[in-house]
């Protein structure tokens, strides 16, 4: 059963993320996907503080870890593919920790709580784990030329929107939109990685 579903887990995780955030957002009065972080759905004191990690972080962490583990079990796996597999596992662990430790309600708070600091650190792990995976994918002999090019395009898009997110955060405008575009580029790459193992 696991081996049948495992190649599709990157695609499943992407779809799950979209649906889960949409569901939680519906249950958060006046929540704005354009102007608020995804993590605000599970922030301390938010209307969906308990719901969001239950339908997003916790199941997603299992999907990421399971997909990374599937990659690690490939026959004649190269060193670079091993790094990619462990990077996706790390992304899953970071997703879990980010769900257990919520951010503060105010993303601009001057003195964040300890839980928020742990949440932020987990977010950094999530961010850089997939950047590493995307960065080395074009050099892995395990992949097709098409996927290598796809990886480069997704990495460029992700970095562009990550910088635009930093500017949006400073300007306090449309941070939710830029975050979704930034993380979306990583999830699209993860979906493409699934397709690479399916076809």
From TrEMBL:
The chain crosses the membrane at residues 6-25, 55-72, 78-101, 121-141, 147-169. It comes from the Bacteria. Keywords: Membrane, Transmembrane, Transmembrane helix. This is DUF998 domain-containing protein. It comes from Thalassotalea marina. The lineage of its organism: Bacteria, Pseudomonadati, Pseudomonadota, Gammaproteobacteria, Alteromonadales.
């Amino acid at each position: 059963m696991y081996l049948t579903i495992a190649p599709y887990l990157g695609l499943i995780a992407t779809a799950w993320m979209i649906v889960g955030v949409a569901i939680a957002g519906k249950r958060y009065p006046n929540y704005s996907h354009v102007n608020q972080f995804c993590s605000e759905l599970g922030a301390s004191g938010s209307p969906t503080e308990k719901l969001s990690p239950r339908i997003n972080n916790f199941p997603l962490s299992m999907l990421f870890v399971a997909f990374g583990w599937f990659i690690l079990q490939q026959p004649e796996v190269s060193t670079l593919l091993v790094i990619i597999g462990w990077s996706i596992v790390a992304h899953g662990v970071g997703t879990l920790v980010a769900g257990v430790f919520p951010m503060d309600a105010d993303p601009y708070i001057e003195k964040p709580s300890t839980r928020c600091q742990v949440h932020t650190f987990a977010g950094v792990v999530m961010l850089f784990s997939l950047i590493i995976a995307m960065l080395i994918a074009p050099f892995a002999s395990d992949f097709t030329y098409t996927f290598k090019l796809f990886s480069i395009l997704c990495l460029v898009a992700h970095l562009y929107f990550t910088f635009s997110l930093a500017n949006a955060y400073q300007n306090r405008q449309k941070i939710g939109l830029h975050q979704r575009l930034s993380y979306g580029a990583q999830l699209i790459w993860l979906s493409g990685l699934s397709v690479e193992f399916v076809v």
